[in-house]
Write a structure and sequence with these properties.
Length: 501
């Protein structure tokens, strides 16, 4: 049985995928930085219109404005559909369909490259597990991979019955083996998501903002796990619970649990300890062997060693057993740490092609559990195994850490955001304690985050804990330390003394 744990804290969401009680994947909602990935839906603003190119530049909140062609406009496509799918008259320029300063809802089709901004479309789509919902698609399509013509005809009829106005729907191959009611439920859910994003944009019509990211935790969980009978989802926020419950048929409500224990959900499932282990470059194998994961700018290099494992027989057998165990663990770690790009693995020397082939089969077999695309290329002439894993997000160590300034970037330390989240969890666990206040020593960079924007984060911490918090910057602590707990007057006196010392 698989469990998905989702924790909402004051400024974000994160979670974990557990299989047989062990974390196999971390779910981290990451802020979009730099290039905006394909699939993100944005409320943008028309900056400039180029009639000669039948295109417009759109402010999407990135360094470069996005590029929107006339053929990617909803109005153009609707007129094209009315014209029996024939091109709309060239006499209608793009400035008859758009005006400067106009609000537009666009989706990134292709991220920016070089000097070119992201390619955009107004014909947005929402991928689910069984269907792709298109609010302005205007057609029904069925996957060609479905086995039976009868099934394709059935789904076409269902699609025509479900869609309204200019809506469109594409039925994916997985829909063929699904309960039609589950497919309809997903369609209605995706439609509701679209309308909620439009309503969100209407609240601030002049603001450029992100409305939807298909790689967000709830999008991924809804698409990949929600309808899986082998998965239970546990959440600690009531609004998130109700949001996911809407997607489930009544007979599958058992799949969703609302965590109401006094202990925070990350502490309850001991996830913080597991998360800290996932950030360390060194890890022991059960046999006594070890792995060292080295992140470089160009690739990830993984070194396998026998370490404490001596084996019972000869050295070759020891090396092969260590390599075999390491191959399975490395495949698991790639998924757990969300490592993407080029990966080189330096196994202990193997003289036999048969042994190398067996190691290849072990790593390929374990990688089948990974939803991210991987490609195992084989061993090089130097005996290194080379492979790739598609980059979809920042790897875990980059999402939660920054390069250490003391050692000039050769090591990694946790970000101020991550340290503040850990402090929030610790304070949440103490919310029923009898003490009224706490004195907390924090690093200077963490203090800067807590006091920025009129002490916004510090105020959130006070709300979460229900306690009065007195923060003291300190060069002696790494991250933070809760130094004192007691009544408000006592802690305030100690805080004032430290301010003047």
């Amino acid at each position: 049985m698989r469990k998905i744990i989702i924790h909402r804290y004051s400024t974000g969401v994160r979670g974990a995928v557990l299989e047989q009680g062990t974390v196999v994947e971390w779910l981290i909602d990451q802020e979009i930085e730099g290039d905006i990935p394909p699939g993100v839906i944005i409320q943008g603003k028309v900056i400039d219109i180029l009639p000669g190119m039948d295109a417009a530049f759109i402010d999407i909140g990135a360094e470069k404005n996005g590029f929107l062609l006339k053929k990617e406009l909803v109005d153009y496509q609707q007129k094209k559909n009315e014209n029996n799918n024939q091109p709309v008259s060239v006499s209608k320029p793009i400035n008859s369909l758009l005006t400067k300063g106009q609000r537009v809802i666009v989706q990134v089709k292709k991220e920016e490259t070089g000097t070119k901004g992201a390619k955009l479309t107004e014909i947005v789509s929402f991928p689910g597990k069984y269907i792709v919902y298109m609010p302005h698609g205007g057609y029904v399509a069925v996957s060609k991979k479905m086995n039976e013509d009868l099934n394709r005809d059935t789904f076409r009829a269902l699609g025509q019955a479900w869609i309204q106005g200019s809506e469109g729907i594409i039925f994916r191959t997985l829909a063929e083996d699904a309960n039609p009611e589950d497919v309809r439920k997903e369609f209605e859910w995706l439609r509701e998501q679209y309308h909620s994003f439009i309503a969100k944009g209407n609240e601030s019509p002049s603001k450029v903002m992100y409305l939807y990211n298909e790689s967000s935790i709830f999008s991924r969980v809804g698409r990949d796990y929600l309808h899986d009978d082998e998965t239970i989802i546990v959440v600690d926020n009531r609004e998130d619970y109700l949001l996911l419950k809407k997607q489930l048929p009544v007979d599958k409500s058992w799949k969703l649990e609302f965590h109401q224990e006094k202990q925070g959900i990350f502490s309850y499932f001991d996830l913080q300890t597991a998360l800290d282990r996932s950030l360390k470059p060194f890890l022991w194998l059960r046999s006594g062997g070890s792995l060292f994961i080295n992140y470089t700018e160009a690739m990830t290099v993984i070194d396998v060693n026998t370490a404490k494992f001596t084996g019972k027989n000869d050295q070759k057998e020891t090396a092969f057993k260590t390599n075999k165990e390491a191959a399975a663990v490395i495949a698991e770690q790639l998924r757990l740490r969300d490592i993407g790009g080029i990966v080189l693995i330096d196994f202990i020397d193997m003289k036999s092609d048969k042994e190398q082939e067996e190691i290849l089969q072990v790593i390929k077999r374990t990688l089948r559990n990974d939803r991210t695309t991987t490609n195992v290329l084989g061993f090089t002439k130097l005996g290194l195994l080379e492979m790739t894993r598609k980059k979809t997000r920042k790897p875990l160590h980059e999402a939660l850490q920054i390069p250490c300034q003391t050692c000039d970037g050769s090591g990694w330390i946790k970000t101020s955001e991550e340290l503040t989240r850990e402090l929030e969890d610790e304070l949440f666990a103490r919310r029923f304690a009898i003490e009224d206040a706490y004195l907390v020593e924090v690093e200077d960079r963490m203090m800067a985050l807590l006091t920025a924007e009129n002490k916004k984060r510090l105020t959130l911490l006070k709300q979460v804990s229900g306690k009065e918090l007195f923060m003291v910057p300190s060069e002696k602590v790494s991250g933070y330390e809760i130094r004192l707990a007691g009544d408000r007057e006592e802690i305030q006196q100690q805080w004032e003394m430290r301010q003047h010392s």
